[in-house]
Q: What sequence folds into this?
């Protein structure tokens, strides 16, 4: 990908995120209201309601790596494992 295409892509992502923040009525550095899923709109498998407040203080990491480059984030995985963060 050329530098110009990368810059265009990053600009589009920033504009997309910023426009969604404005549309959702969210302000930067402000905690959003909790989201609750219960009944027909979602929840846990056992039927109990789920609340986004359960995520407070928790970090979720999702990495997609090209199958041809599986070692590219190995240093990140090792650093995270070294910290021994709780898994639950």
A:
């Amino acid at each position: 990908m050329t530098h110009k295409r990368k810059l265009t892509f990053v600009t589009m992502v920033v504009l997309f995120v910023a426009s969604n923040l404005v549309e959702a009525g969210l302000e930067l550095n402000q905690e959003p209201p909790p989201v609750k899923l219960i009944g027909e709109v979602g929840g846990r498998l056992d039927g109990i309601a789920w609340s986004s407040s359960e995520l407070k203080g928790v970090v979720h990491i999702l990495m997609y790596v090209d199958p041809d480059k599986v070692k590219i984030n190995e240093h990140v995985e090792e650093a995270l494992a070294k910290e021994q963060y709780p898994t639950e």
The mean pLDDT is 80.
